[in-house]
Amino acid sequence: MDRLVIRGGRRLKGEVQISGAKNAALPIMASTILSQGKHNIKDVPHLRDVMTMGKLLANLGAGFHIHNNETIIDCDRIKNFEAPYDLVKTMRASVLVLCPLVARFGRAKVSLPGGCAIGARPINLHLMGLEKMGAKIQLESGYVIAKATRLKGASIYFDTITVTGTENLMMAAVLAKGTTILENAAREPEVVDLANCLIKMGARINGAGSSVIEIEGVDELKPIANYSIIPDRIESGTFMAVAGITGGDLVLKNCIPEHLDAVIMKLKDAGVVFKETKKGLRVIGPEKLIARDAKTIPYPGFPTDMQAQFMAMMTVAKGTSIIKETVFENRFMHVAELKRMGADINIEGGTATVKGVERLKGAPVMATDLRASASLVVAALCAKGETIIHRIYHLDRGYERMDEKLRQIGADIERLTS
């Protein structure tokens, strides 16, 4: 099992190429099920989760091939409609094949999903929406079994905002008979990217990026042709945290600042400087960060996927910060590991009180989920001495060649394989 060894204390400087967004790539890959033919997608990041989705599509009968910057998926020969537990257990996004299978083939058998252990993320809203569109749903031995002759348009209101629920039901609606309206829909850029891709395939979608999305069903879609995935805003935000905590000077290439307004505003308040240049977004860390509070809320608010990295920054900021997690109930698992490095953090329910210390110290730590592992990397880069981060397969699920990118901007980091 791989681990990272980081010797902190260096001021990082240089350019970072931001990869395509994992959370946009996965639903777009799932959307290929909706149309026969060869699909060509560009800027899909080479990640564990992407390979898992590729294996899942191949298990259904699709051809899956990556060549340089292109991912080619051939959906002419899908004959299997089951997403098995062995594949789905490692990645929650596997549930995104449910609605495309039902929409195009009228049936699906999908294992209940797994992934990061950051709290309960049920798919009841996905199933509620499918039932409203006419599907018959059974839960049997840990599997969702869904059947429908043809889905029908419906008005669907989400009690809580759900990104994968919005994406799944949007994919169900594009081939449904009639019009579907999704209310209290997720507004994330990744949802918009999926909608734009579906529109290029021939779907009729209005309102993506707002809380109300209207989809008029069509009889068929055409294959994806040369669609490019948007840049990963969470990778961009993570490297902003790297610049901030190391007093660094980084240029983020292929970054869309508008997707990170809440993060940029918060980091500016903490003393980080941002400058837009011809090469990309320049991020300059201060000599000493200033403690600032943060509260996670759905997009366009401060993202839960940046909470751990922001907390790592605040461990060495001047003053005390209050960080509230409102999206997932079990997303403070990185706290115990940060405390091993000398952080002063107190947890009460969904609130963390972080008192800044002069400096963190290197220690052996263990990654517990994707963003927790990123926070440990951020912390280790400023810590005195050597930090060993175990179980970095979590990191590899969501960050493409992160250790290589850090090495290119001056980090003392190496990957060890057992």
TrEMBL record:
- Per UniProt, UDP-N-acetyl-alpha-D-glucosamine binds at R92, D305, V327
Main location (coarse class): cytoplasm
Residues that coordinate or bind phosphoenolpyruvate: K22, N23
Reactions that this protein is recorded to catalyse:
phosphoenolpyruvate + UDP-N-acetyl-alpha-D-glucosamine = UDP-N-acetyl-3-O-(1-carboxyvinyl)-alpha-D-glucosamine + phosphate
Residue ranges annotated as transmembrane are none
Entries under InterPro entries matching the protein: Enolpyruvate_Tfrase_dom, Enolpyruvate_Tfrase_sf, MurA_subfamily, RNA3'P_cycl/enolpyr_Trfase_a/b, UDP_GlcNAc_COvinyl_MurA
> What are the catalytic residues?
C116
Matching SUPFAM superfamilies: EPT/RTPC-like
* Biochemical pathway: Cell wall biogenesis; peptidoglycan biosynthesis
Subcellular location per UniProt equals: Cytoplasm
In the record, biological process GO terms are: cell division; cell wall organization; peptidoglycan biosynthetic process; regulation of cell shape; UDP-N-acetylgalactosamine biosynthetic process
EC number(s): the record gives: 2.5.1.7
The organism's place on the tree of life at top rank:
Bacteria
Which positions does the record annotate as the modified residue 2-(S-cysteinyl)pyruvic acid O-phosphothioketal?
Answer: C116
A single Gene Ontology MF term assigned here is: UDP-N-acetylglucosamine 1-carboxyvinyltransferase activity
Residues annotated as domain Enolpyruvate transferase: 7-406
Can you supply one Gene Ontology CC term for this chain's record? cytoplasm
Q: Which CDD domains match?
A: UdpNAET
Q: What does this protein do?
A: Cell wall formation. Adds enolpyruvyl to UDP-N-acetylglucosamine.
Q: Which HAMAP family does its entry note?
A: MurA (MF_00111)
Q: State the similarity comment.
A: Belongs to the EPSP synthase family. MurA subfamily.
Query: What name goes with this protein?
Result: UDP-N-acetylglucosamine 1-carboxyvinyltransferase
Gene designation per UniProt: murA
